[in-house]
């Protein structure tokens, strides 16, 4: 599990190759949440800046269109969590059962130093 950040974009790579039914819950917050980290296999923290369009786009490699989420222009912290990841048991499954949550809140550079450590997939 990796997140790559460039030019305000965050690309999350999930090593399960046929995950066509991956569900992602998105929650817009007004302040940091950082709840439930212990129950997740992967937790990734990234920061992005949205321009004057004020739009966050959610898409996948297999989707035919983006899902727009309206947000105010500015910098945002994005926490992406995943659990239920299975690779050895279901390498070719199209519905491996993983669960994803993305929480977005206004970034505060001073607060980021106190965030809990990220959890990476081994």
Describe the 3D structure:
It is a single chain. The chain has 122 residues and is an all-beta fold. The chain has one domain: Substrate Binding Domain Of DNAk, Chain A, domain 1 (Sandwich). It is 0% helix and 42% strand. It is built from no helices and 8 strands. The strands form 3 sheets. Strands 3-8-7-4 form a 4-stranded mixed β-sheet, with no helix packed on it. It has a two-stranded antiparallel ribbon with strand order 1-2. Strand 5 and strand 6 form a beta hairpin. It is globular. The relative contact order is 0.31.
Primary descriptors:
Substrate Binding Domain Of DNAk, Chain A, domain 1; 8 strands; 122 residues; two-stranded antiparallel sheet
Write the layout of secondary structure elements.
Blueprint: E1 2-6, E2 9-13, E3 23-28, E4 42-50, E5 55-58, E6 67-70, E7 74-83, E8 99-106
Parallel strand pairs: 3-8
Antiparallel strand pairs: 1-2, 4-7, 5-6, 7-8
């Amino acid at each position: 599990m990796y997140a790559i950040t460039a030019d305000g974009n965050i690309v999350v790579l999930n090593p399960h190759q046929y995950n066509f039914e991956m569900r992602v819950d998105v929650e817009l917050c007004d302040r940091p949440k950082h709840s439930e980290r212990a129950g997740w296999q992967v937790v990734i923290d990234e920061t992005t800046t949205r321009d004057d369009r004020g739009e966050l786009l959610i898409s996948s490699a297999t989707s035919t269109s983006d899902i727009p989420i309206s947000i105010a222009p500015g910098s945002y912290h994005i926490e992406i969590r995943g659990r239920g990841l299975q690779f050895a048991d279901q390498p070719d499954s199209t519905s491996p059962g993983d669960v994803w949550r993305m929480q977005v809140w206004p970034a505060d550079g001073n607060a980021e130093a106190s965030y809990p450590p990220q959890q990476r997939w081994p």
